[in-house]
TrEMBL record:
Annotated organism of origin: Plastorhodobacter daqingensis
Domain called Glycosyl transferase family: residue spans: 8-129
Protein name as it appears in the record: Glycosyltransferase family 25 protein
Pfam families the record matches: Glyco_transf_25
InterPro entries associated with the record: Glyco_trans_25 (IPR002654)
Superkingdom as given in the UniProt entry: Bacteria
Length: 257
């Protein structure tokens, strides 16, 4: 599958050598060739990165302080998208370094690539994938859109065309990158998940972004989070209108493949 239409990139901080070794062993067992992408270190490079963040908008939109690690992660994903555009590949499989692949990962990936004309961005695991709306069945899997929040970027596929369209409009940073990508009504693309997901994320409760046990997440008091709650509702309404206008809320009547 690699070497042609598909390129695979693994995002990893150099200091996370154990994670890198674990991922490389899993990928070797799957016979998947991967390109290592050195992650942007949000903590070490904060002074360079902070001008790319609209701090006031981020705090208003998310209801908490910005974490340097998530800004590094944001720029890391943008860097992989640029690497895709600089490559001969049509599709990128983008992996963070805490993914666990299930036994059916390769058949799921083959199915996803067979359907690549039907999606622009396809999640292969999730943090949240609320209120799925089935778009089509393919063998053991269902291609779902999501009315609710669809977050997490542990493993996903993105097309060259979408990367080219998104890169010019992703800065300044006003929310985490997975939240930005959930705004399908703003960016107008087919953001789906392949379920049952063929992988999951396991960071051992020690995240390079949120710290051990989410220790670095500093939420504002409830009254200061009201704009973020309002934004979530606006996002849900926008997504529903977007999907309805494109006929993606209709009941699925297609029989299984």
């Amino acid at each position: 599958m690699t070497g042609g239409a598909l390129g695979i990139w693994l995002i990893n901080l150099p200091r996370s050598s154990d994670r890198r070794a674990h991922m490389e062993a899993q990928l070797a067992a799957l016979s998947l060739d991967v390109t290592l992408f050195t992650a942007v270190d949000g903590r070490a490079e904060w002074d360079r990165l902070v001008p790319s963040v609209d701090l006031a908008a981020f705090r208003r939109n998310v209801g908490r302080e910005v974490m340097p690690g998530e800004i590094g992660a944001y720029h890391s994903h943008l860097g992989v998208w640029q690497a895709l555009l600089d490559s001969p590949h049509d599709v990128a499989l983008v992996l963070e370094d805490d993914v666990v692949f299930h036994d059916e990962f390769l058949p799921a990936l083959e199915t996803a690539l067979r359907l690549r004309d039907e999606w622009d961005f396809l999640k292969l695991n999730k943090i949240r994938a609320k209120h799925p709306v089935a778009q089509r069945r393919a063998g053991n899997w269902v291609l779902n859109a999501y009315l609710g929040p669809a977050t997490g970027l542990g493993a996903y596929l993105i097309t060259r065309d979408l990367a080219a369209r998104l890169l010019p409009v992703m800065l300044p940073i006003t929310r985490p990158i997975d939240h930005e990508l959930d705004r399908i009504h703003v960016h107008d693309f087919r953001h789906y998940g392949l379920e049952p997901f063929p992988s999951h994320v396991d960071d051992g409760n020690v995240s390079t972004i949120t710290g051990k046990g989410f220790a670095e997440v500093r939420k504002f008091p409830a009254h200061r989070r009201l704009p973020a709650y309002a934004l979530r509702l606006t996002n849900l309404i926008g997504k529903a209108r977007h999907l309805a206008a494109r006929g993606r809320l209709r009941p699925l009547r297609q029989p299984p493949d």
